[in-house]
Amino acid sequence: MQTARQIESVLKDPNLDEDLKHIARKVFADERISEEEGLLLFEKGPLSYLGALANYIREKHHGDKTYFNRNFHMEPTNVCLYTCTFCSYSRLIKKREEGWEYTMEEMLDIVKKYDDQPVTEVHIVGGVLPQYDLQFYSDLFSAIKAHRPDLHVKALTPVEYHYIFKKGKVSYEEGMKLMMDAGLDSMPGGGAEIFHPEIRDQIAGGKCSGEQWLRIHEIWHELGGRSNATMLYGHIEEFKHRIHHLEELRKLQDKTGGFQTFIPLKFRNKGNQMSHVTESTVIEDLRNYAISRIYLDNFGHIKAYWPMIGRNTAQLSLAFGVNDIDGTIDDTTKIYTMAGSEEQNPALSTEQLVNLIRRVGREPIERDTLYNVITDYTDHVFEDDKLYKGYVSLPVVKG
Ligand code: V47
Ligand code: SF4
Question: What is the pLDDT of residues 254-270, one digit of tens each?
Answer without folding.
Answer: 999 999 999 999 999 99
